[in-house]
């Protein structure tokens, strides 16, 4: 048999996951269970996810839907580093939801914890309630304020929750709490969350956890996984492989 | 559409800040401007209008997509730009390209489908949006209104600037620089050729100076120095110095400066990057061309990360910097995860790659050769090298052995006075051809019998003994491999271990693993080992590891990458042969380069005058010796200069030991005229007399070449994604954005340089705008490398033509004009092929074609020279001694070739730098999402053991001092002093006894401080002034005194040889 390099038989993970999403979209929303799998062995701590999210959502200073936590472990010369990407965990039992006094945030039928900016009063109880630090308050800052020009990338429209919004003073989402929504507006189009696409180490995966044939289900079947702060009973839908 | 026009106008108005005092006042004015803008939008229906209907997600539409090429770092990844209402709102990777997707989409994938697939891109590339829309971008032409560097400017018209640059202008401080018309001395191509021939004849001794002077009596005033005609004409006193420039612009600028203006002094920045890595690789892979000459070597060889089983990174990694993270990361993480590939990382810092490695080898900076030679010793002693491969002495022997490369391991080397001198020649060995004629090639030993070998002979295989020594006709010889072995045996493993700081056990483990996977291993190296005075030797010692295991060309081994189609038209005699033809009236150039690069000192009249030592080093093997350009001009050696064109470069900031460079560029007596183009007023461009706005990466054209880390054949095309922000001006009667290209074209028009304007490319082919140039390049790529056109890309169909137009509907006619573009190409079919190419951002070989079983589809085919005869032939211009032909361990040396005395007691820390993923060297500080958002600032990294000893804690402010900068200050002319200070970060992941700082911070310009334009203050942004840039404490050379230490062979500037002390600031 002639030698065939393994890479030649490699599957394009992005295309596979887009197919998975398409398949999930054929089902009623309540039968989908969106989840993310992050392979920590492949995270290179580049923050391509962080920046992809910021560019996609035009989030201001102080608002980050996803971050990468980096920590050094050990003593020279026996040192390693641990890289942990942290989006919203999209908990099955989200502690942030119950504390909202106005019902502005809830878990939708696809399992994504969403915020209605037009209802949110900006009290920030949910920010405190989230055990993962995944929620930030939009104080209305801009990256390019106090420079010669407020730049158009900050004032360009965004499409969060399928609503075209132009961020501006006194208007939502300024004055609201903001968080990762698994790019629900992209899912609706059959696209993946932006952070998945831009991951240069191919550490981030996404799909329907209810679909046994999805890539994420396959990975969770085959590899050991864990979730953050499982003891709290939040039941996150972001899984880590190590 | 109405809305679109409104936005464009709005943009231009807001961009006009340099002229509009209302927005210069600071935050208050800005805030009110913002809300006004929003109210305007809200006045419609609270949304943007037009195609963006509510609920629709517009960023996955082909009609809103333009593919181009990044340049936030030199990797130049293919990118997908998403454009909304004329604004580039998001940048992702191009799914058609092997740089961004694994495996990448088939080239014939419909545009609508590809638009839905976002491919990966590193954070720096994504933050390109913020480099493009940097609030400190300049959009109009600036003329210095104070002293150089005082950062007081007046806005002048482009026409005035060009006129003054060509004819001479005056400045408020009384300086009156010469115009370029005074410097453009020789204008006649025939005269240039005659002066060149005779000037070179004087240098070689074939013509006397008197004869020259008699023959050229009428033209002696055109020369820099009639007593030294080999220095060339006064044209050479105009110097072009580029920082980041790459294919496309590179050839555009060379055509202008070298071929039309007639100056030899064209430079880019490579020696402050990794030039000795290039030069060593080239020399080791050079082919013998006969008559003692060599050429054709490769600049890069990279592991095939997708198939290797073990990879060693020396002073680089896969996840930061290198060449580069976007294409390399996934190959490495996938291979480690699914194929159990093991990696070792040699780096004094626990880089992100080292953090994932099985072995982290925190080497002492600069001692890479000791480690590589130690591994070589272990491999030889344990006979773990591929002897059969190494014995293949020529191409035929390699082919017979199913190899694409062969080695000089068996070639015999003459030994003189106990030292290897040169390769033994057949004539010396008494070998002649059957007909008695002379043989040109080398000699191997076969069981003691000396045999001729032609290394390039593809018919007659020759193998030789790996180990042999003896004498013939009174000349002693040894094999190159024997000599290499002796280099590895110069020290015991224990001694090597002591020198490089890596335990013997680890050296053995890594060497053992490296030699346990047959052909599926490779060593990658880049900047770390080579930015030292011994960079070339470190590099050759590292390359030898790849040679020992014979992995070139093998799947899982090392390769030179997939290569590219030829945009310059030189290969296929395609539609437009731009590089080798199409230049009517081409002037040409000659003379000793300002940096004495690509020149043997002994072949100059200055050698006849001065002998050894030369006043400053000559660099016969390298080019683009960036750190030596301005210091040479300041020293007036080999000649003073009159004018400098600084393009996207910041030598005062990014080259080591920058104080003398800043002092020189600030002094009109040293460099009478400084013109620059930049997108933001930078640390060095602030010293310009005239500063032109340049187009940013996403606004311009380019044809950069593919990184060798990609095994698929790839040609990338950069094209404008938005209307450039710089003002539009008229050159050759055509409106165009101010840019490097427009400046060159305008000067060409004003001076009357040959090869521009009407029929600039020859009959009926005008050269009036940048697109006249780059569209022809694009056409060559679309046509391919086959003369019969059989390799051309498909024609765009009508729907693709529609998408092409719609995706560019936001561009003004100056940037995109279909009829104008089509007219440049000339042919409807070729035009549609160009559109097909532009619609995909380049052309990309199919993933299925990258490997042919056990071999790479594009393998390296050529030799590995173990004894580098070409370098051994050269002479160090200060010592007068020959360079050394073998990999060797060498201490830090000064320009005079003397070992540098270093006081380890007074300065106990070895300083090094690194590049994190968020930043480039000097141009990413406006990236608020990533560099300022994630990294925020940089630090002086120090091991906890050292910090504890010094009583330092996280966040303590310290400064760095060194023997050549004992006060630790930047001396910034006409601005003041700045301490080389930063905050300490105490970590475990760094070798004790070293300190490090990342690039990208420590700015005092580039938006970090105030500038005055037309009397109004533009306030700087304090966020951009954080952190530390340690360059200026790096050693000044004690012989040269006004420049840094430099590798005399590879030309790399020394970044990692300096000892510093860390003191509280």
Write structural notes for this entry.
The complex is a heterodimer of chains A (242) and B (1065). Chain A is built from eight helices and ten strands. Chain A has 242 residues and is an alpha+beta fold. Chain A has a single domain, classed as Alpha-Beta Plaits (2-Layer Sandwich). Chain A has a four-stranded mixed β-sheet. In chain A, strands 2-3 form a two-stranded antiparallel ribbon. In chain A, strand 2 and strand 3 form a beta hairpin. The model of chain A has no long low-confidence stretch (mean pLDDT 97). With 1065 residues, chain B is of the alpha/beta class. Among the domains of chain B are: 100 residues, no CATH class; 156 residues, Beta Barrel (Barwin-like endoglucanases). Chain B is built from 32 helices and 42 strands. In chain B, helix 13 crosses helix 18 and helix 26 packs across helix 29. The termini of chain B are far apart. In chain B, 63% of the residues are buried. The N terminus of chain B is likely disordered. Chains A and B meet through helix 1, helix 2, strand 2, strand 3 and helix 5 of A and helix 1, helix 2, strand 3 and helix 12 of B.
> How many H/I helices of chain A?
8
Helix percentage range of chain B = 25-40%
| Helix-strand sequence of chain A | HEHEEHEEHEHEHHEHEE
Percent of sequence in beta strands of chain B: 15-25%
In whole angstroms, the N-to-C terminal distance of chain A is: 35 Å
């Amino acid at each position: 048999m002639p030698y065939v390099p393994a890479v030649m038989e490699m599957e394009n993970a992005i295309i596979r996951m887009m197919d998975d999403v398409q398949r999930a979209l054929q089902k009623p929303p309540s039968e989908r269970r969106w989840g993310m799998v992050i392979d920590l062995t492949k995270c290179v701590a580049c923050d391509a996810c962080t920046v992809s999210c910021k560019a996609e959502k035009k989030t201001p200073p102080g608002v980050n839907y996803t971050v990468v936590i980096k920590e050094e472990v050990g003593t020279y010369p026996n040192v390693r580093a641990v890289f942990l990407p942290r989006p919203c965990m999209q908990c099955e039992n989200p502690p942030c939801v119950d504390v909202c006094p106005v019902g502005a945030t809830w878990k939708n039928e696809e399992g994504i914890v969403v915020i209605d900016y037009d209802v949110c009063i900006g009290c920030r109880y949910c920010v405190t309630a989230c055990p993962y630090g995944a929620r930030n308050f939009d104080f209305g800052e801009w990256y390019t304020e106090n420079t010669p020009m407020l730049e158009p990338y900050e004032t360009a429209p965004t499409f969060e929750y399928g609503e075209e919004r132009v961020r501006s003073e006194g208007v939502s989402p300024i004055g609201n709490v903001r968080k990762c929504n698994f790019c629900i507006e992209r899912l609706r189009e059959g696209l993946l969350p932006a952070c998945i696409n831009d991951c240069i180490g191919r550490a981030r995966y996404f799909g329907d956890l209810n679909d046994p044939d999805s890539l994420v289900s396959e990975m969770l079947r085959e590899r050991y996984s864990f979730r953050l702060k499982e003891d709290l009973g939040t039941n996150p839908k972001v899984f880590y492989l190590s | 559409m109405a809305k679109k026009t409104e936005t464009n106008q709005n943009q231009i108005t807001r961009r006009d800040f340099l002229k509009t005092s209302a927005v210069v006042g600071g935050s208050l004015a800005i805030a009110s401007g913002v809300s006004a803008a929003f109210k305007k939008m809200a006045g419609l229906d609270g949304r943007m209008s037009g195609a963006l209907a509510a609920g629709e997600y517009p960023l996955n539409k082909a009609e809103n997509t333009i593919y181009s090429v990044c340049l936030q770092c030199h990797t130049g990844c293919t990118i997908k730009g998403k454009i909304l209402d004329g604004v580039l709102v998001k940048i992702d990777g191009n799914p058609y390209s092997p740089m961004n997707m694994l495996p990448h989409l088939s080239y014939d994938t419909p545009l609508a489908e590809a638009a839905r697939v976002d491919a990966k891109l590193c954070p720096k590339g994504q933050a390109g949006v913020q480099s493009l829309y940097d609030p400190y971008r300049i959009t109009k032409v600036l003329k210095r209104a104070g002293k150089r560097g005082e950062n007081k400017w007046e806005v002048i018209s482009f026409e005035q600037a060009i006129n003054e640059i060509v004819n001479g202008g005056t400045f408020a401080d009384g300086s009156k620089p010469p115009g370029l018309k005074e410097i453009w001395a020789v204008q006649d191509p025939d005269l240039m050729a005659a002066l060149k021939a005779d000037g070179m004849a004087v240098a070689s001794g074939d013509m006397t100076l008197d004869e020259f002077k008699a023959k050229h009596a009428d033209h002696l005033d055109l020369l820099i120095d009639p007593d030294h005609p080999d220095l060339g004409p006064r044209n050479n006193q105009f110097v072009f110095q580029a920082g980041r420039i790459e294919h496309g612009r590179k050839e555009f600028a060379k055509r202008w400066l070298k071929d039309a203006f007639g100056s030899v002094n064209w430079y880019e920045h490579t020696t402050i990057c990794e030039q000795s890595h290039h030069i060593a690789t080239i020399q080791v892979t050079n082919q013998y061309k006969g008559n003692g000459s060599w050429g054709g070597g490769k600049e890069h060889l990279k592991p095939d990360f997708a198939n290797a089983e073990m990879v060693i990174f020396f002073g680089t990694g896969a996840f930061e910097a290198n060449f580069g993270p976007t294409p390399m990361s996934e190959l490495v993480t996938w291979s480690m995860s699914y194929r159990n590939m093991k990696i070792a990382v040699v780096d004094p810092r626990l880089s992100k790659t080292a953090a994932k490695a099985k072995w982290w080898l925190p080497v002492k900076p600069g001692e890479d050769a000791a480690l590589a030679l130690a591994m070589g010793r272990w491999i030889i002693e344990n006979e773990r090298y591929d002897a059969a491969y190494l014995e293949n002495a020529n191409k035929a022997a390699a082919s017979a052995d199913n190899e694409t490369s062969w080695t000089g391991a068996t070639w015999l080397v003459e030994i003189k006075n106990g030292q290897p001198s040169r390769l033994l020649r057949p004539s010396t060995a008494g070998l002649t051809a059957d007909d008695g004629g002379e043989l040109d090639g080398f000699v191997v030993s076969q069981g003691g019998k000396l045999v001729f070998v032609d290394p390039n002979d593809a018919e007659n295989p020759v193998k030789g003994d790996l180990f042999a020594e003896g004498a013939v006709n009174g000349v002693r010889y040894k094999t190159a491999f024997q000599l290499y072995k002796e280099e590895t045996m110069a020290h015991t493993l224990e001694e090597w271990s002591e020198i490089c700081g890596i335990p013997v056990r680890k050296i053995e483990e890594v060497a053992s693993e490296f030699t346990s996977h047959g052909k599926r291993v490779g060593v990658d190296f880049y900047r770390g080992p080579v930015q030292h005075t011994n960079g070339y030797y470190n590099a050759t010692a590292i390359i030898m590891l790849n040679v020992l295991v014979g992995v070139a060309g093998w799947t899982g081994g090392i390769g030179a990458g997939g290569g590219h189609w030829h945009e310059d038209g030189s290969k296929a005699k395609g539609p437009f042969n731009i590089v080798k033809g199409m230049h009517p009236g081409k002037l040409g150039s000659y003379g000793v380069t300002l940096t004495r690069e690509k020149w043997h000192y002994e072949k100059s009249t200055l050698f006849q005058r001065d002998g050894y030592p030369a006043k400053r080093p000559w660099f016969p093997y390298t080019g683009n010796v960036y750190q030596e350009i301005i210091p040479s001009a300041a020293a007036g050696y080999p000649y003073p200069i009159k004018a400098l064109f600084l393009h996207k470069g910041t030598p005062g900031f990014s080259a080591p030991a920058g104080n003398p460079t800043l002092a020189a560029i600030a002094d009109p007596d040293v460099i009478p005229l400084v013109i620059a183009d930049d997108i933001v007023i930078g640390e060095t461009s602030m010293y310009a007399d005239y500063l032109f706005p340049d187009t940013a990466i996403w606004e311009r054209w380019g044809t950069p070449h593919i990184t060798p880390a990609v095994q698929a054949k790839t040609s990338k095309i950069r094209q404008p994604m938005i209307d450039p922000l710089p003002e539009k001006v008229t050159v050759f009667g055509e409106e165009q954005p101010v840019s490097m290209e427009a400046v060159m074209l305008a000067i060409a028009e004003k001076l009357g340089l040959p090869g521009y304007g009407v029929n600039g490319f020859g009959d009926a082919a005008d050269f009036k705008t940048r697109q006249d140039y780059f569209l022809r390049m694009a056409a060559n790529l679309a046509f391919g490398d086959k003369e019969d056109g059989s390799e051309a890309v498909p024609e765009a169909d009508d729907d693709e033509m529609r998408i092409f137009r719609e995706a560019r509907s936001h561009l003004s006619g100056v940037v995109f004009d279909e009829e104008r573009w089509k007219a440049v190409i000339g042919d409807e079919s070729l035009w549609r092929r160009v559109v097909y190419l532009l619609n995909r951002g380049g052309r990309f070989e199919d993933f299925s074609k990258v490997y042919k079983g056990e071999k790479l589809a594009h393998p390296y085919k050529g030799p590995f020279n173990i004894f580098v005869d070409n370098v051994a032939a050269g002479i160090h211009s200060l010592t007068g001694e020959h360079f050394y032909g073998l990999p060797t361990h060498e201490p830090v040396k000064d320009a005079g070739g003397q070992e540098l005395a270093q006081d380890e007691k007074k300065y106990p820390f070895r300083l090094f730098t690194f590049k994190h993923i968020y930043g480039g060297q000097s141009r990413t500080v406006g990236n608020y999402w990533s560099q300022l958002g994630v990294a925020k600032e940089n630090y002086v990294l120090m091991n906890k053991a050292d910090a504890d000893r010094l009583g330092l804690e996280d966040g303590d402010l310290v400064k760095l001092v060194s023997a050549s900068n004992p006060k630790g200050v930047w001396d910034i002319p006409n601005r003041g002093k700045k301490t080389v200070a930063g905050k300490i970060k105490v970590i475990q992941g760094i070798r004790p006894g070293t300190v490090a700082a990342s690039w990208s911070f420590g700015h005092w310009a580039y938006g970090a401080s105030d500038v005055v334009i037309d009397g109004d203050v533009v306030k700087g942004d304090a966020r951009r002034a954080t952190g530390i840039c340690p360059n200026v404490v790096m050693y000044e050379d004690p012989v040269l005194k006004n420049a840094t230490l430099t590798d005399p062979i590879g030309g790399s500037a020394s970044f990692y040889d300096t000892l510093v002390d860390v003191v509280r600031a």
